[in-house]
Write a structure and sequence with these properties.
Helix content is 65%, strand content 0%. By secondary structure, the protein is mostly helical. Among the domains are: 10-60; 62-107.
Length: 147
């Protein structure tokens, strides 16, 4: 077996302590007492037994009552998710605002080195008037006459 926190630990061994912490958290939420010597498998077995007994109790209840409670819980969940999203947006906005204020209050960065060369505006093109060529006009008239 690999040492604790060693580089030779497999990815699964690295996840196991975190997974155990999640199991202990759920175990304690279900009103069980978690001890340091509690085995993860036994905790999961007890959780499964409790879940099965609750499902049996749920199936014995009035379906309309169960549907109403499920709808209420789903509404509460959506409200919690919306509030969490709004809180996250507010925090992100505050961070952006703080950065903006820091940039605004920061001293102006002085340019160093050779200044950029001034670029002059391009020359304006003069409009060239097209004067009709008298010889060309004469040739056109001759062509019209002969055709």
């Amino acid at each position: 077996m690999a040492g604790a926190g060693g580089a030779s630990a497999t990815p699964m061994e690295a996840i196991l302590p975190e997974l155990r912490n999640h199991i202990v958290e759920v175990y304690e939420r279900c009103k069980f007492k978690a001890t340091a010597s509690s085995d993860t498998i036994s905790m999961l077995t007890q959780l499964e037994g409790k879940l099965e007994s609750l499902i049996v109790q749920l199936s014995a209840m009035d379906p309309e009552y169960v549907a109403a409670k499920e709808k209420e819980k789903e509404k509460d969940r959506r409200v919690r998710v919306r509030e969490a999203r709004l809180r996250a947006q507010q925090e992100a906005h505050e961070v952006r605002l703080k950065k903006m204020l820091e940039r605004a209050q920061a001293p102006v960065k002085k340019r160093e080195g050779k200044p950029e060369m001034f670029r002059s505006a391009p020359f304006a093109k003069k409009a060239v008037e097209e004067r009709p060529d008298p010889t060309l006009e004469q040739e056109r008239e001759d062509l019209k006459y002969w055709m």
